[in-house]
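Deliverable D5.2: sample structural annotation.
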Amino acid sequence: MEEDAPALELPVTLDKPGKVADYLRASELDPAERAALDQGTTVRRGQGYTLRVTAAPAVHHRLLARCQLLDGGPGASAVPAQRKARREYENRVITLTPIGP
């Protein structure tokens, strides 16, 4: 059915750990990604916070891809708390309908 296709791009709300949100805010983002972060709602969580972001699944996937450096890599050291925050966000994003190749 053609009616089902647009449903894949309906906005989805996900909580983004504060360490991930802070990293993404300091990154160069495209306008849709920046707007999604700017419109997010901060939710206090103990010592930190989460950012509740509503965006299309494709935007969440792109934001996740942008924060891969939090896991470290060649010439970059990883902070354990940032690695954990990125994994938590990844676990939330992978529950979304997969996007194309």
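Annotation notes: The longest strand covers residues 48-55. The chain has one domain: 11-93.
The annotation will be released with the project's public dataset once the embargo ends.
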